[in-house]
Amino acid sequence: MATDHPRKGTPPRASSNNNDPEQQARVIPLFPEADAPSAHHHYAPSGDPKTNTIPNNSLEMVPPTFLTGPTRILLFILALIFITNVLPKLFADGLTPPNITATVLLAALSLLTLAIRARRKPDAPQRIVLGTSHAIFPYSPHNKAFYTIPYEEIRAVLRLENQDDETILIDTPKRLFSFTAANFTSPHAPTLLWAGLLSKIRTLADGETRLRHINELAQNAYLTGHNRTIVTHLLLLAIAAGFLLQIATGALLSPFHMLDLGANNPELVANGQWFRLISSNFLHASWPHLLINGVSLLFLGTLVERLIGSRRMLLVYLLSAIAGAGASAFYAHGALSVGASTALFGLLGAFAVIHWKYRNHLPPPYRQTRRWWVIILSLNALLPLLIPQIDVAAHAGGFFAGVIATALLLIGAHNFNPGRKPSRKIHIACLLALSLCTTAFIQTAIYAMTDHPHDDIILVYEYIRRAQHDGPDALQILAQTTVFDPRATHHRLQLALQAAEKAQQIAPHRTDITHTITYLKARLSPANSPNPPPPIPSE
Fold it and tell me: Who is most buried in 51, 143, 434, 482, counting CB within 10 A?
């Protein structure tokens, strides 16, 4: 099955008790007969892995199934969108035209997914065929698509083993193929495929040169796969802790509380609240936002940290986060901006630099195909057109900061070496970056424990300014979340009332806004503020 996901494996001849990188490099090759070109073996028709041919030059895969993993994930996402976004509106507003349209669209997408899956499902088990000059690889056991790959185009054939499974990675210009023991009817099929492909490659005119290059990639894959990814996991814990803090303080439901926890705001940053350029990267707008960024961090963080080391990855992450938040503050001008995607785009930029600099020495699965890059870059270019809330300036700032930071960190590192130790300068830079982050978090905590009524006014004014172009929904959400917030101060209730009244001016026929104004007036009636906030200026 084709994949672009990294996987840590143990080479079959490497000692698991040997932790010295130089010694690990010596215990490989990972393929048979690499050091004995004159040796020749023959496979028996039975398919015994100790022999050297594949029966009938083909390997049968398991019978196809209808509901594959990607199909289940897509159907789950569509159901999740319906449950979290459409269903509440159906209960609240009934069968309005927008609700009917959204329901029909999601149902149509679900049926289309099932129809496409039915069209792609093979009628019989797929086979991998090793011909005289080329191999035929199915996309997966459950997809009738296949690829014909000449042996000259096979860049690497790597064998990864762990206690429960064995995986064969085949790197080609078209895609990275990944076949596990679970894909075949015979448990020996991965070993036979691995040895059979290497035997075919040896018959090429430059076969021995190709095998030596495959051996180099195998060593790089082994050493890279054993690099620790502690920084990635610590960053995941940090953003998870930030999200728990948001839940505890009600920040997910209140823009005011989000502002208290350090969300990015252009005017407040310009007024000297620089700590928002750091704290905002550890906050998220919702749990789907957190989930998407968390999965992306696990994938990109693992790749980059294994390829360039923990300290370099940490520097790229933090510098990209700050640069992306700065670009958002000075170019996007959103009322509030949060999320780790600034740093994630920095990691994507770092991966692009690594890919370009070491393109001939990156092993699978760390080397991605051109198709992967086209898909990733195209999706990120198109998403802002579909989701206007995406902060393009933050993403662009983080990406270019990641590119520049990684290029600087790799100056002089002409050869790919996953075991390269960081220099003293990198150690010092990491300490300075962590000290800056610690200072920012302390300032954020101090800010969150004090009242800042003027900052609240700035936030509401920004919401009103944007409502002239984006509609009254954001104003209504701000007012509605405030009226139901038991911790809302009298000052914030009055600001929420002014925001709701501005929303009503934009959409006078909306009953939900009218109800919010009624509730706000009811909460404000028992007490009168001696110092009411100044009126929000009109556009």
Answer: 482
**Rounded CA gap, 248 and 372, in Å?**
39
Nearest in space to 496 (alpha carbons), one of 480, 510, 479: 479
* DSSP string of 23-59, one letter each residue: HHHHT---STTTT-TT------TT--TTSS--GGGEE
Taking a C-beta distance cutoff of 8 angstroms, is the pair 398, 320 a contact?
yes
**H/E stretch holding 169:** strand 166-171
Distance CA(276)–CA(443), nearest Å, equals 9
3-state helix, strand, coil in the chain (%, to 5): 60, 10, 35
Question: How many helices (H) and strands (E) would you count in the chain?
Answer: 20, 7
452 class by beta-carbon count within 10 Å (0-12 exposed, 13-18 middle, 19+ buried): middle
To the nearest 10°, the Cα dihedral for 46, 47, 52, 58? 120
Q: CA-CA distance, 338 to 265, in Å (whole number)?
A: 9
Alpha helices of 471-510 — where are they, by DSSP H?
A: 473-483, 490-506
**Distance between CA 219 and CA 418 in Å, rounded?**
10
Residues annotated as catalytic (active site), given as ranges: 341, 395
What is the pTM (predicted TM-score) of this model?
0.75
Cα-Cα-Cα-Cα torsion 110, 114, 117, 118, nearest 10 degrees, comes to -160
Sheet holding 156-161, edge to edge: 156-161, 166-171, 176-180
In sequence order, what DSSP letters do the residues of 356-407 get, joined into one string? HHTTTTPPTTTS--HHHHHHHHHHHHHHHHH-TTS-HHHHHHHHHHHHHHHH
Q: What is the mean pLDDT of residues 37-50?
A: 36
Count, residues in the chain: 539
Q: Is the pLDDT of residue 160 over 90?
A: no
Residues with Cβ within 8 Å of 74's Cβ and at least 6 positions away in sequence, in order, are 113
Say whether the peptide bond before residue 365 is cis (omega within 30 degrees of 0). yes
**Residue 143 CB contacts under 8 Å (≥ 6 apart), including other chains:** 64, 68, 120, 121, 122, 126
| Most confidently predicted of 20-34, 70-84, 184-198, 293-307 | 293-307
Of all residues in the chain, the percent with pLDDT exceeding 70 is 86
